Amino acid sequence: MRILFALITCIFFTLFVSAQKKLSGFFPANTQKQLDYEKQFDAMISTSNQDVWMKFLTSRPHHIGSEQGKANAEYMAGFFKKWGYETELARYDVLFPTPKSRSLELLGDKPYKAKLEEPSLKEDGTSGQKSEQLPTYNAYSADGDVTAELVFVNRGIPADYEELEKMGISVKGKIVIAKYGGSWRGIKPKVAAEHGAIGCLIYSDPKDDGYVEGDVYPKGPFRPEQGVQRGSVMDMPVYPGDPTTPGYGSTKDAKRLDRKDAINIMKIPVLPISYQDALPLLAALEGPVVPDAWKGGLPLTYHAGPSKAKVRLALQFNWDIKPLYNVIAKMKGEQYPDEWVIRGNHHDGWVNGAADPVSGLVAEMEEARVIGELAKKGMKPRRTIVFCAWDGEEPALLGSTEWVEDHADELQQKTVAYLNSDGNSRGFVGFSGSHALEQFFNEIATDVTDPQTGVSIGDRRYAKSLADASSTSKAKMMGNKYMKIGALGAGSDYSPFFQHLGIPSANIGFGGEGNGGEYHSIYDSYDHFTKFKDPGFKYGSALAKTTGRAMMRLANADILPFEYGILVNTISEYMSDLRSMTDQMRIDTDIENKLIKDNIYDLAKDPTLGFATPKAKGSVPYLDFSKIDNAMVQVKARAESLKSSLVSPEKINPSKIVSLNKILFQAEQQLLFAKGLPRRPWYKHMIYAPGFYTGYGVKTMPAIREGIEERNWKEAQEYIEIVASTLMQFSESLQRGVDILK
Amino acid sequence: MRILFALITCIFFTLFVSAQKKLSGFFPANTQKQLDYEKQFDAMISTSNQDVWMKFLTSRPHHIGSEQGKANAEYMAGFFKKWGYETELARYDVLFPTPKSRSLELLGDKPYKAKLEEPSLKEDGTSGQKSEQLPTYNAYSADGDVTAELVFVNRGIPADYEELEKMGISVKGKIVIAKYGGSWRGIKPKVAAEHGAIGCLIYSDPKDDGYVEGDVYPKGPFRPEQGVQRGSVMDMPVYPGDPTTPGYGSTKDAKRLDRKDAINIMKIPVLPISYQDALPLLAALEGPVVPDAWKGGLPLTYHAGPSKAKVRLALQFNWDIKPLYNVIAKMKGEQYPDEWVIRGNHHDGWVNGAADPVSGLVAEMEEARVIGELAKKGMKPRRTIVFCAWDGEEPALLGSTEWVEDHADELQQKTVAYLNSDGNSRGFVGFSGSHALEQFFNEIATDVTDPQTGVSIGDRRYAKSLADASSTSKAKMMGNKYMKIGALGAGSDYSPFFQHLGIPSANIGFGGEGNGGEYHSIYDSYDHFTKFKDPGFKYGSALAKTTGRAMMRLANADILPFEYGILVNTISEYMSDLRSMTDQMRIDTDIENKLIKDNIYDLAKDPTLGFATPKAKGSVPYLDFSKIDNAMVQVKARAESLKSSLVSPEKINPSKIVSLNKILFQAEQQLLFAKGLPRRPWYKHMIYAPGFYTGYGVKTMPAIREGIEERNWKEAQEYIEIVASTLMQFSESLQRGVDILK
Q: Whole-angstrom Cα distance, residue A379 to residue A373?
């Protein structure tokens, strides 16, 4: 009796829930079919495949141009073909410098010759592959042989140079040493060169990813004393991809700029070093003790410099053209072959690259495998699905950028969305990207189960943000599980799709419980990953279920699940943020100027330190935001009309669906401005860009925001008008959607 | 013509300013005389005397019971006599333990025997006086020989044990190692023992006063790797002074408690160590990595423990009775010999003690010398001035406490105020103490010139606080130079005067530009001080001018410059602070309990770390503050009446002045409650006390505040009533002032 009752309840409950379940973009009649499909998909996801593939893909160094890199591309292509995809290796030929010679010495009384070498470890099976490893270096550094005094510049961002100025220290004619972190690494030599420095060293401080954070490898996951972060220092905030083929594909016969005319190649020699090599250099610095926020975790007093002893940095590179191999695997859509849903992750690593990039790549492969299996069982996607494995991401998003530039028109015509990942570990799900997909990703987050707790990945993410919040924020956050997604800056292969072409994009990954210090070193290996970052690939599977689910929903949706009202509200928030930032700058500038005039800083400072008094700044004018305000009124109204028109999608005349969907997936392209951002025309999206002085870090409403931040009021005002026009353009495309539904 | 005009302007201006100048407490007719007097005083202050005296006083170790300690007392007494003071050496006999044997070892695979020794330096002239130096130890530690695993407890305060509980770590039966700082040192072993620890190590982390802060001695002022902070761990928040004579003078024949009955002697062995000795111990810890806020500056990963290897700590002490010698120098007041203005600074040091205490002491001596000289010229103070140099402050405020307890009645009858200093360096003036003197100290700060900038010390302090403030605070602070003075906790000789007897007190000193790591080590020497802390004794002179000026104004004022309205407003602020603290606790408790109930912390935590979930706490009741609210209405009204009655002090009937002044200087005594604070009857002041779990740190409205903080709602409510009664008592004394003026 009891059991029967429970059974009935259970059946009723299941029916009830199923009946209730709504999926954005799906007609009620098609929802259950999609959910059944996802259930089968989840059940087929395997962790052991990921383990096998990672072992192979990380078995030897696989940077762009390496033997293993090409072998990996072919290995993956073999699988994709087997799983039923039309697969090609898309080759491009790109400028990829590698070191010819590297040398760094401290001269003077206590000379030191930097080791510039990561030792192999018996606990790490691939760390001894010396002959195939790329040496520790920064790609696209200038050649050079410079000798000068050393100055410590903290993170090497513009604010740090303001501090140095207060301390009375100039880097002109000096070599600077900066800590990794706080900006994308390429910003550091760029800003150093702007201030007259002739060389730049970048080191990994143990406070950032070494012993201060936790036990170092192999005992723990963090950076050992000789570990070095390789990486590119090309000025990608100007444009990524092959520096000699800006804006077009670097095909075999492509016309190339002369290397000296490529403005995004670094102007001074730059070298990354370990904290073991940094220690004697930092110990040689004299001058004032740095501010607390600049201090790292080495056992010494951090001084700003300059050093009395000079430093000699000598670097020569082979400026070779190398072939890269993207793997492009397509499964044509049954119903809408000309609507593409694209998924990508890069396959090149700096060395063995297990976490970065193979952990995301094997999840993508598993998605592709299962979708392929299901297709063979007769469940082919309605839209075309494209799986990409990019080569040459590490140096400059080379593979993705060249391919995107090479196929720009077709991609803008056909691409519904681009979903990216770039590494994964235990922890909490993170989504960033086009805000029109925010509601869509919230639904995904509700439907995937966290492998450690059994609740949804959305609930676990909510629990984490709530547990970590301040007590004031907790009160506001409680009960509100809606997840605001992040905005995208740069740093992975979504950049050409998103910021160059305006294709709706997102980056997805798990993290927060797999922190370590292996990044871009020889220790980012299978051994490190499986011991510390995601033992058993449980979160690899969670990523496959999350991203795979998103791919399938986008591929099978009746009406594409873009909700532009959310994007519009997000732009409103950015605008009010810009306004209050400007107002606050005005107040702060007035206060600071008054304090300077009243001699407050001179009276407060320690006269024995001889620091300079800050200089007064020009006052902050009132900008005229009215054009954007007016545009936003119209955009909001139209986004609302469109939403209302879509309340009962199943009633839409089927003949209109293709046109409607095209309007929906192309709407974000209307936010592009053809001439792009000031001084960087490649970046055309007027809402999102990597910061010119932050690199990875996103700047929303970039032209206006950076105009304000850099006190370039004229440019800010000019771009207020431009952004208003793009908003009007965008508004018109929403209106076309409304019209079609009438 | 021009010059003449300027001259006239100048004369006019001087006259105008003089005419305008008002001094709190002085009849207009007497103001100029006092200002002239101060001008002469300033002109006579010498830096070279301070240099000579410091050289002598720090020439050898001069802790309580030492040869040099007694010699110093006699040296000073000789000067005071010469300068015209009735001078005595007031001897008390007190329990003062010194080490018989000390040993600390790490056992296990990587054994280490701690050095427990500060090396002498050729750059420091007195650091080699090994035979006279007290070894590195904590006075009033228990004897003991304990062997156990080690646990790192951060600062060792109650909140740290809550964190440890979350990590699933108990200190029961373990030895703990705590960082110095974050509380008075005696709190650390007390809280450790409360949690079942059997031994306690306290080390100086380089992040607090070692190489992280700046270059170490002798290159810079900070703590070298073998430097150790000595210090007392007696439970002074229960009562200071000789632990065997609580509440009365430890005269030669005083009856003494048995040592085991003295509840403020530490129950477990405690030893301070250097960061060199701490390094191998901390490196032996296992268990989880500590939270970021716990991490210090040593080059290792900070783990919470426990260690696998055990630690052995063995300490034996000589529990001797030692004589101490206070120097008490009186200059009888011409007009009011039974009204005493007392000034003090201790003279004992842990070793050579240049900064602590001699830098404040030589300023006091210089004040005494100049006042003596002026008296000889016929300018004797109207009230009695008493200069004290206390012995035995370092172990437990022994000299001041025993003398105050021995003369309690007379001091309560006669003492107008007690002004203390305890070390001094370059920088910014700081005042803390009775808020009835806040306006008075604001005037002093306006009238003393800063030696580095030439503006007033008040203006420089204002500039510093403005320059360092956040931009939000700057807007609020601009133009408001009024200085809120701090509240007094414990940590120096004002404690018996202020918190035991209710005598208006203040602590005064300069600092902020003489930071270092010499504190309580052999490196707190003449060489260190004159090189780093106040070269040329310019701030010694500034301190003499500040404190000496305050002494003379208090000694010569017509009507004593107590402004009780300010104290009353300050109490109001404390009360509203207590209310909002309670309300916030209620909100936070409800939120935390809800999050715990909703499983949020379990979902958010990393399941591989096995941390415990926090436990729900009882909800926070609403307390009945009405008795205090009602009392405050009356107190405010009466403070205002008193202020109005004193608007034209020169019109007061001269026959009433003595009675009025007595009411004024005794009013704060009405805020005492005879039975004192819960579990610590020695502390009788109901507004200010050292925190039971913070030590130095003041707790205002201590019984109520600590009742709330410790969730002892019954006791908090009980003391709301008691504090209300003392406020009524205080209100009546203000009324007596009003009545006398009718």
A: 9
* Cα–Cα distance measured from residue A643 to residue A225, given in angstroms and rounded to the nearest whole number: 56
Residue-range domains of chain B with CATH? 28-93+326-432+486-556 (3.40.630.10), 96-321 (3.50.30.30), 435-485 (no CATH), 564-740 (1.20.930.40)
Contact (CB<8Å) A604/B460 = yes
Per-chain mean pLDDT for chain A: 95
SS3 labels along B134-159:
CCCCEECCCCEEEEEEEEECCCCCHH
> Which positions in chain B touch A289 (Cβ < 8 Å)?
213-215
Which residues make Cβ contacts (< 8 Å) with residue A404, sequence separation at least 6?
A411, A496, A497, A500, A501
DSSP letter, residue B392: S
- How wide is the angle at C-alpha B495 spanned by C-alphas B490 and B498, nearest 5°? 125
Query: What is the pTM for the complete model shown?
Result: 0.95
Q: Do B301 and A595 touch (CB under 8 A)?
A: no
**Which token pair is B190?**
């007390």
Q: Does residue A541 come out as left (phi exceeding 0), alpha (psi in the -120 to 50 range) or beta?
A: alpha
**How far, in Å, are A234, A275, B103, B110 from residue B309 at the CA level?**
50, 29, 17, 8
ipTM of predicted complex:
0.94
- Cβ-contact A158, A133 below 8 angstroms: no
Query: Testing the interface with A: which of B209, B215, B600 to mutate, by most A Cβ within 10 A?
Result: B600
Confidence band for A602, pLDDT divided at 50, 70 and 90 = very high
**Where in the sequence numbering do the catalytic residues of A fall?**
393, 626, 685
DSSP track, A188-227? HHHHHHHTT-SEEEEE--HHHHSTTTSPBTTTSSBPPTT-
What pLDDT is recorded for position B19? 52
CB distance A604–B455 less than 8 Å? no
Q: How many Cβ atoms are within 10 Å of A104's Cβ, its own excluded?
A: 22
Q: Indicate whether A10 pLDDT > 80.
A: no
What's the first-to-final CA gap in chain B, in angstroms? 56
Once rounded to an integer, what is the mean pLDDT over residues A45-54? 98
Nearest-angstrom CA–CA distance, B386 and B340:
7
Instruction: Please enumerate in sequence order all residues whose Cβ is within 8 A of that of A635, keeping only pairs 6 or more positions apart, or say none.
Output: A568, A571, A727, A728, A730, A731, A734
**Confidence at residue B140, expressed as pLDDT on a 0 to 100 scale:** 98
Over residues A73-84, the mean pLDDT reads: 98
Query: Among partner residues B474, B605, B608, which is closest to A591 by beta-carbon distance?
Result: B474
User: Residue A383 region, left (φ>0) first, then alpha (ψ -120 to 50), else beta?
Assistant: beta
Judged by DSSP in three states, B668 sits in: helix
pLDDT of residue B20: 62
B123 included as an active-site residue: no
Those residues of chain B that have pLDDT short of 70 are 1-20
Q: How far is B445 from chain A (nearest CA, A)?
A: 15
**Residue B686 φ/ψ region, left for φ over 0, alpha for ψ in the -120 to 50 degree band, beta for the rest:** alpha
φ and ψ of A620, to 5 deg: -95, 120
Give the residue carrying structure tokens 């500039």.
Answer: B463
Question: Within 13 Å, how many C-alpha atoms sit on residue B662's CB side?
Answer: 15
Instruction: List, as one string, the DSSP characters of B514-559.
Output: S--S-TTSTT-SHHHIIIII-GGGHHHHHHHHHHHHHHHHHHH-SS
- Going by the DSSP 8-state scheme, the letter that residue B685 receives in this structure is B
- Confidence bin at A20 (pLDDT 50/70/90): low
Whole-number Å distance between alpha carbons of B12 and B160: 63
Question: What torsion, rounded to 10 degrees, do the Cα atoms A155, A160, A164, A167 define?
Answer: -110
Return the structure tokens found at B311. 């630690």
- What are B39-55's pLDDT values in tens digits? 999 999 999 999 999 99
Q: Examine the residue annotation and report whether B626 is marked as an active-site residue of this protein.
A: yes
Token code pair at residue B445: 């700060």
